[in-house]
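INFO batch 0412 | record 1 of 1 | parsing
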Amino acid sequence: MYPAQQAKLRVLIVDDSSFMRMAIRGILSRAPKVEIVGIAADGVEGVEKALALKPDLITMDVEMPRLDGIGALKQIMAKQPTRVLMVSTLTCEGAKATFEALDAGAIDYVPKNVTDSKDAQSVFQQALLAKVAEASLAPLPMRAGMAPRIVRPQQVVRPSHFTHRKISYVGIGASTGGPVALQEVLSRVPVNFPHGIVVAIHMPKAFTGPYADRLNAKCSLSIKEAKDGDIVKGGQVLIAPGGVHTSLVKQGSNIVVKTFPTSEFPQYIYIPSVDQMLTSLCDASGGAMLGVILTGMGNDGFKGMQHLKGKGGVTLVQNEATSTIYGMPRACIEGKVADVVLPLDQIGFEIGKIGS
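INFO prediction complete | emitting tokens
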């Protein structure tokens, strides 16, 4: 799970809270393939130690004295690009700062909600270990002007092969690296796009609302967090809410949103489930849809894309070279359910073409 060229993943912890420094250190120190190489109590010290120690990964608090996490992140990315995992509070302000950090080059984030509750501590521990493992697989961020990394060529099937298929809806799934990737995609979809778009991206409950607001301010399409009873309609993007699973159901001539507690679908590890969203949208639309899988860890979305492929829908997947984590796209490509494989900067335009 960690870089093969070395025995352990070298981690620097940057946090102004002594409690959080101890908590993170305690969790990661028990991971057999992680070595804590340094601790920093604020952003200034974090930058100094990042440049001196050259860690493989940095866990970075957002709010700190002297220099906050975003300021420290920007300095590190300018001088010595490093994988950075933001440690964010589960608040609206924490969400906003986290998305700014992702735009500045952070690989991912882990929400912190560590209290005296053993359940909360267990959730944070599991999330931190999983996110560190995922982030370790991501390529190093590139400094401006660096040449892109080279990967093996991938087949691209052009939409001319299936232009006869009717498209009335679009479903998009993503995970690690998804917040930035999705913004890139939606910013390139034309404002007069005639079909409704539904997105499932793995995020906690407190983050999906602020994220939808952020996208709405940056893209020409109308974008909002989905709610029960919302109608999927042309020119609008609905972001599946965090903390629950989202299904799409047929009601009369419309397709509407219905949310379910996670206990209703215990088979799904990731929340909200991309598989559930895609499968239900496919069934509600009779297969008249485009499924899109962007960067992300694991294989959530593969079964949904497989179901869609079997119903005659169209499938589009992000390529390896532009994926932060290639797991979700790889599952679709190796499972032979991808009609189109494209770099990130072409996907929004392609959605516009296929859906026109």
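INFO post-check: Residues 1-5, 144-155 have pLDDT under 50 and may be disordered.
INFO record closed
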